[in-house]
TrEMBL record:
Keyword Nucleus attributed: no
Composition bias, Polar residues: 1-11, 19-41
Name by which UniProt lists this protein: t-SNARE coiled-coil homology domain-containing protein
Cellular component, GO, one term: Golgi membrane
Domain (T-SNARE coiled-coil homology): residue spans on this chain: 43-105
Annotated stretches, region: Disordered: 1-47
Keyword S-adenosyl-L-methionine assigned: no
GO biological process assignments: protein transport
Stored SUPFAM superfamilies: SNARE fusion complex
Segments crossing the lipid bilayer: 114-133
Subcellular localization, as worded in the UniProt entry: Endomembrane system; Golgi apparatus membrane
């Protein structure tokens, strides 16, 4: 769709002057108070930009310190988890050897009597615990 050239000029008039138009100087902004170049931007915009930049720098430094603390916590947790894994491996070995001994009892000729004693002992312990809880 083709727009007439007057359409573009009407849009430009509604938007106001652009940065590239002749209303603004083509020279860089000068911070020299004795300069003859007029600053096209109000001083408040520069102050606001500096304030926003300081806020952004503070937020970035806060995020940086937070990420460093998270990294330190991760290293500490990984160390803790690796020590726990070693403890579980050791306890697995102890439980495996205990199970082998218990299963080895059944292979002996006196294994049945030992299983009966073990069952009676476990029953007695559970009965005593039940009495303690019941008559508390």
């Amino acid at each position: 769709m083709q727009f007439p050239s007057s359409h573009y000029t009407q849009q430009a008039e509604r938007r106001g002057p652009s940065i590239h138009s002749s209303h603004y100087p083509n020279q860089p902004l000068s911070h020299n108070p004795n300069s003859t170049v007029q600053n096209p931007w109000p001083n408040g915009l520069e102050d606001e930009n500096e304030r926003l930049q300081k806020e952004l720098n503070q937020k970035v430094s806060t995020l940086r310190s937070l990420s460093i603390r998270i990294g330190d916590e991760l290293k500490e947790q990984n160390t803790f988890l690796s020590s726990m894994a070693g403890a579980f491996d050791r306890s697995e070995g102890v439980l495996r050897s205990t199970m082998n001994r218990v299963l080895g009892i059944g292979r002996n000729s006196s294994g049945c009597s030992l299983y009966c004693y073990l069952l009676c002992f476990a029953s007695l312990v559970f009965f005593i615990c039940w009495l303690i809880i019941r008559f508390r």
